Every structure is written in C-alpha cells, then in structure tokens.
Amino acid sequence: MSALMQRISRFLSSPKGQQMVDRGRRELAKPGNQDKLRQLASRLSGRRR
C-alpha cells in the first residue's frame, strides 16, 4: 500500500476522520445533494466515449 493510502487509512480511523465520514453521510442523505450528485454523474458519464 502506498504511503498516501496509509495516511488516508489512519486519518479515516481517527476520531476527526470519523466525524468527517459521519458529516458526509448526513449530507448525502439530503435529497437536494442527491439530485446534485445525479446531475454531476450524468454530465460526467455523457463525456465518456
């Protein structure tokens, strides 16, 4: 595993990392944010060939 991946893993298992993960999950649960992500995904998938 690369050094960057190790640092990310350590951060995500830390209390501050867990707080960020929980906040991200709460934000993703909001319908408005889900719509924005769907629009972004559709734009990005349209660019593929």
UniProtKB/TrEMBL annotation:
This is Uncharacterized protein. Residues 1-49 are annotated as: Disordered. The lineage of its organism: Bacteria, Bacillati, Actinomycetota, Actinomycetes, Micromonosporales. Residues 22-38 have a biased composition (Basic and acidic residues).
